Amino acid sequence: MRIGGYGIKLEKRVSLTRWQAATISILAIIVALALFGIIFILAGINPFVAYQEIFSYAFVNRFGLPVTINRFIFLLLCTYAFIIPFRAGLWNIGMTGQFYAGSLAVYAVLLAFGVNEFNAQHPSPMIVLPIMLIAAALGGAAIGAIAGFLKGKYDINEIVVTMMLNFMAFWLVSFMIKEGGPFMNPGGRGESFELPESLFAPLVLDIPFTIFIALAIGLLLSYMFAKTKIGYQIRAYGHNPAAAEYAGISKFFIPLLVFIMGGAIAGLAGYHYFAAVPGVYKIARNYGFFGDLAFYGIICGLISQGNALAAIPIALLFGGLSVGGRFVQGQLNMSFGVDYALLGVLMITLVAFQFFYRYKIVVLKTKKEASRAVAHHYD
Amino acid sequence: MILDEIKRGDTVLEARGITKRFPGVVANDQIDFEIKAGEIHAVLGENGAGKTTLMKILFGQYQPDEGEIYLGGKQVKFKSPLDAIDLGIGMVHQHRKLVPAHTVIENIVLGHPNAGKILNLNRATREINELCEKYGFSIDLKAKVWQLSEGEKQVVEILKALYRGADVLIMDEPTTALTPLETEKLLTSIEAMSSDDLAIVPFITHKLPIVLRISDRVTVLRNGKVVACLDTENVTEKSLAKVLVGREFIFRIERKKVEKGKTILQVENLSALSDKGFLALDGISFSISEGEIFGIAGVSGNGQRELVEILAGLRSTEGGKVVLDGNDITSTSSFKRWQLGMGYIPADRNEVGSIADFSLVENTTMNYYFDADYYHRGTLDYKKIRELTEDIISEYGVVTPNPDVKAKNLSGGNLQKLILARVLSRKPRLVIADLPTQGLDIGATEFVRNKLVEAKQKKAGVLLISEDLEEILSLSDWVAPIYEGKFMGILPGDKAKRENVGAMMAGISWEGEET
């Protein structure tokens, strides 16, 4: 394309540094917000006011911020559940189901100890709390392992399996918490019995301690992929399964392992939202909403390109926008679905901007100089 | 059609000043090329010389950044291969572009303008049979393409181009993957086609005898430039090699006699199925001792792949036994075999032997991540692996700015050197070298062969699988021609000759064979 004495040309990138990748992501976010601004303008709302409302509610407001942080922890765990199989070249679309399985496992432990909201007689929380956490991880891991096993042993597509397990887990939760189900709320409100106060998760500055678990997992994953033997094997399998197999890396064990690890982390998200977030402490009636939110782990994982540390700011942004978007919708009398529409535009823009991971735009002066510049560039 | 009026000896296709740049390289730099009707004009060049780029430009797959193409004296621009085909240019791909589940005739008429909406296969059969008769091709038009040998598939591609009315036939590495017998037939057919005024452009990496045998002229490329355009009658193999690599060249391989030691590998009555479920290996037995190179000669697809994968622990057997240094490893995992001293150099260095997006250090790790000297409590010692990588890079002369470059940025020869270095640095007991010099240029080929001889001198047992008869004959202490999953015999190196091995790998049993 040529404009006046200048030519614009797309050029393949030979390499991409981390900073370039980060710059591209930030540009994408700015462009997405600008695009969504059009919707505010069409609704007769000043987009700057709208964004100020969104961000101040999500990240400053004393009611909004805790919700943002809880969603951030939840999304971060779901992102890690996606990232681990992703680094092995596999797609975990089953964070939703693994999250449900983790939640169910937590309440199954409570039931096993004979705990419900009327009978708070149980061994010390020091014993029960860790067991709840472990159960959540095991529950998620168990359902994840199904997909990993089928992939490793019979090469059955993991996307299909995890997707289908989501539906099964959804209805299993429904069966367990609705009237007549083993976890039903005595009040019969279509939700599970509530956690006794003695088993509420410890809070640090009103934030559930699960934030430390999520951040620690991020650090561990980052170290694992960069330095360890198992991380190397997972990455090798992810880049080229045939070459990995050649090098003696098991094509059965790696898929199984990554889905167990991913499932376990998604299971912890179940503990987090339904047993650690203040004010919830039960499998809520709208558990499907959180199941949908879990899918944003895929988006955060893709945008962070499988980098566990880069996922942290991205999960925070998505968590905040989902909270702020919902708030602004009510505040400014907008129609339903602003929050998901905003996340959707952000997602599409970020994915579209991945184009610039592979290409860059080069502006050249007149044609003769252009070819010389190119030639010079390549020398 | 521009080319309808062309007479024998007229220039059919001409390229002037072709330049094509890719990020980081100038693949074609001011290339001039010309071919006349009835001429065979070979293009010769080592890997990375720009052959493929030029070929793709002539066939319309790439558009040149600079330069013009003339067809019958008129300037043309190919936007896609379709334009090139419509104007009379045919291409015989090295990696065949055919529909395996369709029959030969269906593949030939596929995309032909006359095929229209209703297939008149009777008429097409008649016309194609005429072509076959004229140029000496013999092929069953009703056979499915997946059942054909590489040579037969090539015939299908040639017929497809001819049936589309090609006046210029571009052939990519025409004799690769063919048996000596098939090669002979192909050369006869090429000569028949050229005497019928077809212009033929074979692109060849380093098979100089083929170039000398069939071509009238040869254009030699080096580093993206034309270094010479010669009449073939004035050149010899030696002078051509000199132009090709830019220096005096002879293969310097000695078959060194090493004292035979203990048996390293013993294979007994091995059988295996192919991916399609056919019997690919049918009761193979052999053994390799310390200091021996055991060469398996054969055209790809006769069970070599299955044999290698079984030995590497990547495929299960249908029966038989594999013993390495006295341990039965028939059902041992490949992970364990690496630790027992197996060293496997796979045929496909891009898809199996290396990981394109990994750095050279990480690629070296492929053979070291399981080595207790290179990790501590599950954490890899990347510093040590990096030093190791630097060492093997300098020892093997891998050309790279630094060990953090991604493997995909290495040329084929350099990548093969890295894989070889990585595998041999483990001092393996058994080296499995599957097509180790396939697609390499002369310099790299010589290097790889010498390294295999060096491994043998260090008392390793070497299993060499190759389609290149010269390679097998010049290196091996034992030669086993393989055909349809069976050895046609196992000959001692000094009894193995071009004639008997060539015949045996085509399935013909040879009088006086010794086993």
Walkthrough of the structure:
Chain A has helices at residues 18-42, 47-59, 64-87, 95-112, 125-154, 158-177, 210-227, 229-239, 241-246, 253-276, 287-294, 296-303, 311-331, 338-353, 355-358, 367-378, and strands at residues 2-3, 6-12, 203-204, 207-208, 359-364. With 379 residues, chain A is mainly alpha-helical. Chain A folds into 2 domains: 1-45 and 334-379, no CATH class; 63-332, ABC transporter involved in vitamin B12 uptake, BtuC (Orthogonal Bundle), CATH 1.10.3470. Chain A has a 3-stranded antiparallel beta sheet with strand order 1-2-5. Chain A has a two-stranded antiparallel sheet with strand order 3-4. The longest helix of chain A is centred in the middle third of the chain and has 30 residues, at 125-154. Chain A is globular, with a radius of gyration of 23 Å. The model of chain A is unreliable at 369-379 (pLDDT under 50). With 515 residues, chain B is an alpha/beta fold. Chain B contains 16 helices and 23 strands. In chain B, strands 13, 16, 19, 20, 21, 22 and 23 form a 7-stranded mixed beta sheet that branches. Chain B has a 6-stranded mixed beta sheet with strand order 6-7-8-3-9-10, with helices on both faces. In chain B, a hairpin with a 2-residue loop joins β17 (375-376) and β18 (379-380). In chain B, α12 crosses α13 (412-424) and α13 (412-424) packs parallel to α14 (442-457). Chain B is globular. The mean pLDDT of chain B is 85. At the A-B interface, α8, α9 and α16 of A face α10 and β18 of B.
